[in-house]
Amino acid sequence: MPSKLLAISSEEKKWVQKLTPSRGLIYHFSRGCLRHVMSNLTGSDPLDIPLKADPGEPPLLAEGWGNISMSHCSDALLIGWSLGKIGVDIERKDRKFQAYKLSKRFFTQYENCEIEHLPPIQAKKLVLKRWVIKEAAVKWQRGKIANNINQWIWKNQSSFAYHKKLGLKVKVYEQNHEQWTYAIALDEDSLIVKPIICLN
After folding, report:
1. Which residue from 38, 39, 44, 182 has the least number of CB within 10 angstroms?
2. pLDDT tens across 93-109, in order?
3. Among candidates 89, 79, 175, 99, which has minimal Cα distance to 134?
4. Residues 116/107, Cβ–Cβ less than 8 Å
5. What's phi and psi for 63, nearest 5 deg?
């Protein structure tokens, strides 16, 4: 985490003022980091990055700049950048939640059967893995979590997830790093075998 907030656009500063203090801080932090990272990768000034990232909406880059997605948890920010569509999600592995209850509420009967007889620790790991994969897929779709989390299906160990209502299919990559677990969703025909992960 940077020791100070990084530069954001004048439009983004207006959004900060409209948000609650806590949401404004997260918004400023995430957009500033995104601009900073892309500035390092492209050589452009952070404020010249053609980014539109309104609160609650998927971030967009100008045509020709590719696609981005971002996710944050209490102490980490994950930024994904790709020529094709991309969705990312990150969570702490020690996040507190009731695995069986969450699964029954948001997952399919098949997915619930997978964890039904697992010990609590293993069930929690699988539910968290499934959640980050599904949320990354929803972000790839540019959809809403509430309407789509239960529509995306991921079978344990599969390299793909699919949307049962819309017939969409994505390639998924899930990984653990230290205290976090994260997932990346890419186009079904993406040739990327393993995304490049840069840690900062």
Report:
1. 44
2. 999 999 999 999 999 88
3. 89
4. no
5. -55, 135
User: Could you give the 3-state DSSP secondary structure of residue 45?
Assistant: coil
How far is residue 60's CA from residue 71's CA, in Å, rounded to a whole number? 14
Residue type, 63: E
DSSP H helical segments within 107-168, as ranges? 109-116, 120-141, 145-148
Beta bridge partners of 186: 86, 171
* Tokens 């899930």 sit on residue: 174
Token pair belonging to 28: 């400023």
Q: What does the pLDDT look like over 20-34, one tens digit per residue? A: 999 999 999 999 999
pTM of the predicted protein model: 0.92
Give 144: exposed, middle or buried? Use CB within 10 Å, 0-12, 13-18, 19+: exposed
